[in-house]
Write a structure and sequence with these properties.
- The protein has 149 residues and is of the alpha+beta class.
- The chain has one domain.
- It has helices at residues 26-35, 39-48, 59-65, 89-94, and strands at residues 6-8, 68-69, 72-76, 100-105, 108-113, 116-119, 128-136.
- The longest helix has 10 residues, at 26-35.
- It is globular, with a radius of gyration of 14 Å.
- The chain starts with 5 loop residues before the first strand and ends in a 13-residue tail after the last strand.
């Protein structure tokens, strides 16, 4: 069963003016959930980073350029750390019961919090391609650096 791995959340989308309008917004929802900010704030941050409405976004590159957002530090998890890249999302969740992560599978970004996928749906057999550990920090968010160079 997949429901034991999923904690349903849309990151606050349904309570905004974007309801029914926005799509391809998994990065916005994941940022809202992990940075504990309203959907609108996450949307604004990613718009400053170059995300266009209703379009996908290369979040990994954005987080490498902007590792501190809203009081949280996003640290890439190296390939050598236990059960990260190349494993299934189910394996990653089962081996990371504590902590908060932004996890990327092909075509989707999701949040994993204390062993649960916090999202609107889960694809447990998807292969993990990138992971960022999310931890609170006292560092201040700098000006957002967009994805383009």
């Amino acid at each position: 069963m997949n429901h034991e791995l999923l904690k349903y959340s849309d990151g606050g989308l349904q309570m905004t003016a974007y309801k029914g309008v926005e799509k391809n917004d998994c990065t916005v929802r994941a940022l809202a959930i992990l940075a504990k900010v309203p959907y609108e704030k996450a949307h604004e941050i990613l718009e400053l980073g170059g995300r266009r409405n209703r379009k996908g976004f290369y979040m990994g590159r954005f987080l490498e350029r902007n590792p501190v957002l809203c009081g949280y530090k996003f640290t890439p998890v190296s390939f050598g750390e236990r059960l990260t890249m190349g494993k299934t999302l189910r394996q990653f969740i089962n081996n990371n019961k504590k902590g908060e992560y932004m996890v990327f599978v092909r075509g989707h970004a999701t949040s994993v919090v204390d062993g649960k996928c916090v999202d609107t749906y889960i694809r447990p057999k998807s292969r993990v391609i990138n992971v960022f550990r999310v931890e609170p920090t006292d560092l201040q968010m700098e000006n957002i650096k967009p994805n383009w160079f």
